[in-house]
Amino acid sequence: MKRYGLYINGSWSDPDTGIWFDTQNPYTGEAWAKIAQGNAADVDRAVAAAKAAFEGVWGTMKPTERGKLLVRLAELIERDAARLGGLEVCDNGKLIAEMGAQTKYMAEWYRYYGGLADKIEGAVIPTDKPNILNFTRYEPLGVVALITPWNSPLLLLAWKLAAALAAGNTTVIKPSEFTSVSTLEFMSLFAEAGFPPGVVNVVTGFGLEAGAPLVAHRDVEKVAFTGSDIAGQKIYEAAARKIMPVTLELGGKSPNIVFANANFEAAIMGAISGIFAASGQTCIAGSRLLVQRSIHDKFVARLVEVAGAAKIGDPMSTETNVGPITTRPQFQKVLDYIDIAKDEGATCVLGGKPYTGKGAQGGQFIEPTIFTGVTNDMRIAQEEVFGPILSVIPFEDEAEAIEIGNDIDFGLAAGVWTSDIGCALRMSERLRAGTVWVNTYRAVSFTSPFGGYKRSGEGRESGKDAIKEFLQVKSVWIAHETTPQNPFIIR
Predict the structure, then answer these.
(1) Domain containing residue 101
(2) 315-335 pLDDT, tens per residue?
(3) Where is the signal peptide (predicted)?
(4) In degrees, to the nearest 5, what angle opens at C-alpha 64 toward C-alphas 61 and 65?
(5) In this predicted structure, what is the pLDDT of residue 361?
(6) Phi-psi group of 462: left, alpha or beta (phi > 0 → left; psi -120 to 50 → alpha; rest → beta)
């Protein structure tokens, strides 16, 4: 098996612990690489390298030059997208069709922010003070910690890293201990693109040993994190002790709402996409399917028919629809929630158990599962499962759909299926979610901001809004006359 070290200051090094741990392929169940187990000493080295680069060559580099490096990186990503996508499949078990598309598409984030790097502009402010010029500057924060999850490592890294670098920051990345390989392999492209050493660093390992020291480090000026709301809360608390800004993209329990006047087949496919794509292992999963009561039974019958025909198996096959659950703990968590739903009185109309048929290597497959008879107060409707488990909830009208849709601690996304433009506009206005899709689902772009309401997060990623998450504004006052002023009163 290949052994991966830490990437610090442009070179590879062994961890301070001298320990490597295995990473497993979720499909085969076999270990396929060894990952360095970093600790606080390694974090210190990585942060020091990032700080030196920020105060040195990267900090003095003109924004246009930074932008050119990001554009060059985008070109290299496109060249290596297939290889990187294959590595992600080995690490997280998601479909090659999806991961290959993600690794190719992530180039657009680096290209977009490469173009934005030299368009960060302050303003001259016409104040009420005579003989004083006032203007603003947007400046980078310094060393930024980027902590990424196991479900889409490189794409979700791009959402953070591209904006952070375009803004002029340097970075230390802590990938999930379950899916570190693609991030480590990605590092070779930075040197090839011409990035100075220390601008991008990677410390692998576990949360308590590597992640917590990174968040708490005195020289880290911001944390951008994607993961569960529980982990996000802990990071938020640690950041508060430092009075440090954060961007948190956390969990979701998104309502996918189908009205009787919707295009029936399009809504069926949207419901399938919302929950069974990526085996439900996505923060934007439409795990609560709200169906207008007049079409509920017909819709569920067709949904069961389509979802039941999904092909389960090898994620490297382009014919596979549903791959394995990425980690063994997550596999057990999903099974536990199936039992919880049954105990609460929900009716399982599809799936509800591990898949053990043809192609079920590794033993981490769960059948696409649909529950009816769900009420919104059940745990299966309120808590994020992060697996291929769908709760179907009926509703009567717009008012009840809004009430149910918003009756949740999360607010990451929502879907609406209707042929009534007035309904679409009313729903998109009243749903408390950072993203509302109408007659589509899971659409994202480098041009559009993404983030959540409530426990789903803080701040925004992607689009022009995201770069301001990695900047701080400074107000500069310059007096251009020297008449002495009364020093004992504010000017």
Answers:
(1) 2-250+456-476
(2) 999 999 999 999 999 999 999
(3) none
(4) 50
(5) 87
(6) left
Would the CA dihedral through 408, 410, 411, 414 be positive or negative? negative
End position of a domain, from candidates 392, 409, 438: 438
pLDDT higher than threshold 90 for residue 85: yes
Same domain, 230 and 324: no
Q: Distances in Å between the alpha carbon of 159 and those of 91, 194, 226, 301?
A: 20, 21, 10, 38
C-alpha dist (Å) from residue 355 to 14, 142, 302, 308, 359: 40, 48, 21, 12, 9
pTM for this predicted structure: 0.96
Q: Which among 224, 233, 210, 227 has a CA at the least distance from the CA of 141?
A: 224
Is 213 in the same domain as 294? no
Spot the catalytic one: 185, 209, 249, 469. Answer: 249
Express each pLDDT in 251-263 by its tens digit.
999 999 999 999 9
Q: Do 324 and 469 share a domain, yes or no? A: no
Q: Has 139 been annotated as catalytic?
A: no
User: What gap in Å lies between CA 301 and CA 208, rounded to an integer?
Assistant: 46
487 falls within a domain: no
Is residue 443 one of the residues assigned to a domain?
no
The tens digit of pLDDT for each residue in 422-457 reads 999 999 999 999 999 999 999 999 999 999 999 999
